[in-house]
Specification:
With about 210 residues, the protein is an alpha/beta fold. It has eight helices and eight strands; from the N terminus they run βαβαααβαβαβββαβα. The longest helix has 24 residues, at about 165-190. The structure holds adenosine monophosphate.
Length: about 210
């Protein structure tokens, strides 16, 4: 089963992709995570991407398309994948159609996680994660049970994304409305778009998604 999760920054694409990955033995393909790994490794791609990501703008299509194309060729994708954060522009959506055809793959679901912008600013600016295992937390909605200690692995170091500040979040939301929202219309017009209510509690969103994918 191959899926796309669409939605604004903070809509919960990453969180839900991880849950679907576990439930259906799929692989999560997050272009944001891939880019952060490139930045951390200090590669040429990472050097190009870092400043753009910190501004909240989108990284050039050619770079993203090349990255996802080679990732789709890895054997683990054959068990099924969840695209999280890709495609994000019309050229990326068109390139994805071409790549799927070339690689003899098809999409089973394209699902939009619908949310309100103001709530996304609050969600994103409060989020942080365990530096060791990656478990996600929030300053207000989901603090660790013991302050300063990860519930899952006992780690005591936490991190925040460099682009999770209010100014950058607003720029990311603008990029979403200007460049990504049009591809929702693209998938709607081709009759494949489904949607879930991303303002519902996390477990409810997971149930809605499972209801769609079966
Ligand atoms: P995310 O982790 O999905 O919120 O992505 C973080 C940042 O990485 C975005 O604000 C963009 O700068 C960049 N990025 C991630 N995916 C893409 C994409 N498909 N196209 C362009 N830029 C992307």
């Amino acid at each position: 089963m191959n899926l796309i999760l669409l939605g604004a920054p903070g809509a919960g694409k990453g969180t839900q992709a991880k849950r679907l990955e576990d439930a259906y033995s799929l692989v999560q393909l997050s272009t944001g995570d891939m880019l952060r790994a490139e930045v951390a490794s200090g590669s040429e791609v990472g050097k190009k991407a870092a400043e753009i990501m910190e501004s909240g703008a989108l990284v050039p299509d050619e770079l993203i398309i090349a990255m996802i194309s080679s990732r789709l060729d890895k054997a683990d994708c054959r068990k099924g994948f969840i695209l999280d954060g890709f495609p994000r522009t019309a050229p990326q959506a068109e390139a994805l159609d071409r790549l799927l055809e070339e690689k003899n793959l098809k999409l089973d679901h394209v699902i939009e996680i619908k949310t309100d912008d103001e709530a996304m600013v609050e969600r994103i600016t409060g989020r942080f994660s365990c530096a060791k295992c990656g478990a996600g937390y929030h300053d207000e909605y989901q603090r660790p049970k013991v302050d300063g200690v990860c519930d899952k692995c006992g780690g005591t170091e936490f991190k925040r994304r460099a682009d999770d500040n209010e100014e950058t979040v607003r720029a990311r939301l603008t990029a979403y409305h200007n460049q990504t929202a049009p591809i929702i219309d693209y998938y709607r017009a081709s009759g494949v778009l489904e949607a879930v209510d991303g303002m519902a509690p996390i477990d409810d969103v997971t149930s809605q998604l499972k209801g769609l994918v079966g």
